Amino acid sequence: MSQPYLAPVPELYVSYESAQKLKADAAELPSWDLSPRQICDLELLMNGGFNPLKGFLSEEDYDSVVEKMRLADGTLWPMPITLDVSEEFAQSIEPGQDIALRDQEGVILAILSVTDRWTPNKAREAEKVFGADDLAHPAVNYLHHTAGKVYLGGPVTGIQQPVHYDFRGRRDTPNELRAYFRKLGWRRIVAFQTRNPLHRAHQELTFRAAKEAQANLLIHPVVGMTKPGDVDHFTRVRCYEAVLDKYPQATTTMSLLNLAMRMAGPREAVWHGLIRKNHGCTHFIVGRDHAGPGKNSAGEDFYGPYDAQELFREHEAEIGLEMVDFKHMVYVQERAQYEPADEIEDGVTVLNISGTELRRRLAEGLEIPDWFSFPEVVNELRKTRPPRSQQGFTVFFTGLSGSGKSTIANALMVKLMEMGGRPVTLLDGDVVRKHLSSELGFSKEHRDINIKRIGYVASEITKNGGIAICAPIAPYTATRRAVREMIEAYGAFCEVHVATPLEECEKRDRKGLYKLAREGKIKEFTGISDPYEAPEKPELCVDTTGVDVDNCAHQVLLKLEQMGLISGSW
Questions:
Q1: pTM of the prediction?
Q2: How many Å apart are CA 486 and CA 118, to the nearest integer?
């Protein structure tokens, strides 16, 4: 193996004096406010984590990466790193122009010298990079529903790194880590990539990996964007710090990586390898179903369990890192220790707790045995994930105008307030329109903005342990999914489809809206001149035709009890 830790990697930052001058000059430039994912990408571009990239990909490089996992000059690079922007912003920019890249507070981080502007074929990108154009994949959903429609490419001039106020002593650039390894005389370093809390099986796995590679260990967790629903990075880092004492201090260190994961399985594994090479590592642990996003729309895994290991092995020499393949570790009761699953003889008792089972035990406040995890880790997880009956949650009603959403929502609110224990807030469509969205019209774009505002408020209520009840029409699947993801980062989301037929809704038309829509006096009216995309898999479906409100609200309470969100004492 070569010794990549010896020399610094190239960074894209200019000197302090040049940065001050560029900051002053940038006041005259068009500005783009970066999204959280773009900030992660820019940070790793500037500090050399994405070496050899010198900026956001040109169209030629992008096409080559999508099709062949290589830059146009043939260099191995599996992931498109692009600056996606809105069509409106793109129209105001011409290749040859410079633009200021700013964080969400308006602080300038870099200058992008635009060389390319193009509208990508996102379906092709999804198919090639992620293996399928399937919205069940979080990165494909992001590509189609969050990312801008136009890409800009060109070299980046770094002015300053993004500011992090958390765990500052744990955040190292590639060159800082390389200097640390040089100082300690570490020549073989195995990196462990993780986006989950560390349990005893992970500790045993990393011990074995370091021993097998005869290397020091770098625990290198991702604290940028991971998969929606993952444990937040604040909790995870507290868990890692609790476990770090279990490792020999002289041979192990931990550093945080501000990477926005794409959950791209095999390609992601190669990408992770290149990033760790830039950070001075010589070995890399590639897991079973490494960076897999879970199930596709057909309920099958997106990638085979060993696809990532196979692709990494194919490119191992070119990456410049040796792969240490993940051994699936299980607990053998008779010997009271973890061992690789493929080395265990018949007749012994193997104990294991899946991620799903762990979440269930946390949600229901059940015991998590010491053989599975460390008490310090379990304590941290319980702080963030109390039993479900003590967590905040959102009930999200969706259905046609006149279907009975608001009436059931009001009844449910009263029943939940009668039970007590948690504050309850009703975010009714009409009330929200009056107080939060009074400036919005009823175009598709404005209706989407309104629903996302409702989702944001509901997510804040949920995060703080309250109950949010939402009752908008919310006709579009993509917007409802975005709201679900926003809320499920903090608690449970119960979607209730009030599936009252259109004819029944028209009969009840107290406000005369359907009549006006039929006459063409109201444009883009859901169910008449604009579609309603019915939920495919709501938590509950109710039809209010001939059914009293109390019965419908009771059905929702039963569903909430079944989900463990309220206790059965009501």
A1: 0.76
A2: 30
